[in-house]
Design a protein that fits this description.
This is Putative acyltransferase. This protein has 364 residues and is mainly α. It has helices spanning 8-25, 47-72, 77-100, 114-130, 134-154, 171-179, 196-214, 220-242, 254-277, 285-292, 294-310, 318-328, 333-357; strands at 312-313, 316-317. The chain has one domain. Helix 10 crosses helix 13. It is globular.
Length: 364
């Protein structure tokens, strides 16, 4: 079965997720941020930790909906493979440009990043979707999650002589030190590591499974029930798994995948019910505007950041003027930092709205 109309709920969720990425990436001050708007230092889960896996989950839903429609329209797999490859390549290239900006120092280049991970996961997931059914996809995800857990908890880190899950001395960091070229984000380890990209793939597969559910012929209300039920039990399973294999975004642990995929399923179910079933769409417009050119706006935010964070005006960058001004007026520094981040999201909304209004959709 193919869907005959776009899911506004999915479009809105994709856009709101990009807006959230920008919000948490660009606070007014790195030294004044509410806990939940920071990445956790190691084990644990904040709101910020959930943004990237949500996006991968929604990428998975989109893969199922988009490629089922294209296969139904008779488009050959050869043509789809070509488009998938070049789309992944474009996203990866944009990520590399962001890594090089603004100095373009190729001697200390970092080959990994958020967009690079999205590119690789999209490529693998789309290829998997075209060559397997949903049961095989579920088994693949389950086996990968269990194998990752066993590898990190049973294989001693070479050179350490014992199993370690601490920063920079775990099996993931050791693997990167041997096989990941270029500079690592944290010096001795990188959050977008080679091995953790395997479990990031599983985050996308769970989204593909949710997309498969949305394509079924069962009533829309039952789809919501299944999404909410699956989300609840998946999140609980992730929490319980986290008691022996901690929820950790930096390692993208198996428990982290289940918890965040469970929450993403709950979010999708709620949006699907409110937007596509009940027709309450007015409040979704900002998300749809951001989602129409999601990767392009994410890239643009990094370009704006050069002006807002690195260019001096009367001796200080704009973010410092804004936060310091509110602080002197009596505002909590963390609130001032958050207000600046919201303002920065609004700045990025302007070109997103213009592109949407002109029906310009940059395909990345």
């Amino acid at each position: 079965m193919t869907m005959t109309k776009r899911l506004l709920s999915l479009d809105a969720l994709r856009g709101f997720t990009i807006a959230a990425m920008i919000l948490v990436n660009y606070p007014g001050s790195e030294n004044a941020v509410y806990f939940t708007l920071r990445h956790t230092e190691w084990n644990g889960l904040s709101l910020t930790d959930q943004v990237a896996p949500y996006f991968l989950f929604f990428v998975g839903v989109s893969i199922t909906l988009a490629y089922s429609k294209r296969l139904g329209a008779g488009i050959g797999r050869g043509e789809l493979y070509r488009k998938i490859f070049f789309r992944a390549l474009k996203i990866y290239a944009v990520g590399m440009i962001l890594n090089l900006m603004p100095a373009f120092d190729v001697h200390h280049i970092r080959w990994t990043g958020t967009l690079q991970r999205i590119s690789i996961v999209f490529f693998l997931s789309a290829f998997l979707y075209l060559n397997s059914n949903w049961k095989q996809q579920a088994w693949i995800a389950g086996v990968l999650l269990v194998m990752y857990w066993l590898a990190l908890t049973c294989i001693p880190t070479p050179g350490q002589g014992r199993v370690m899950l601490e920063p920079g001395v775990n099996l993931v960091a050791w693997f990167d030190s041997r096989f990941l070229p270029g500079t690592m984000w944290r010096g001795s380890w990188d959050p977008e590591s080679i091995l953790s990209t395997i479990t990031a793939l599983c985050s996308c597969i769970t989204g593909m499974l949710a997309g498969r559910l949305l394509l079924t012929d069962i009533p829309a209300g039952e789809k919501v029930n299944y999404l909410m039920t699956a989300g609840t039990f998946t999140a609980i399973a992730g929490y319980l798994w986290g008691l022996v294999f901690p929820v950790n975004e930096n390692l993208w642990t198996s428990s982290f995948v289940l918890v965040t995929s469970g929450f993403a399923s709950l979010l999708l179910g709620a949006f699907y019910f409110l937007v596509d079933i009940r027709g309450r769409t007015a409040w979704t417009k900002p998300g749809i505007v951001f989602g129409a050119n999601a990767i392009a706006i994410y890239f643009l935010a990094d370009v704006w950041a050069i002006l807002f964070y690195e260019t001096s005006f009367a001796g200080r960058p704009l973010n410092d003027w804004f936060v310091s001004g509110l602080f002197r007026a009596g505002a909590d520094p963390r609130l001032a930092s958050l207000l600046y981040a919201v303002l920065f999201v609004g700045v990025n909304y302007i070109p997103a709205w213009w592109l949407y209004r002109k029906k310009i959709f940059i395909k990345l």
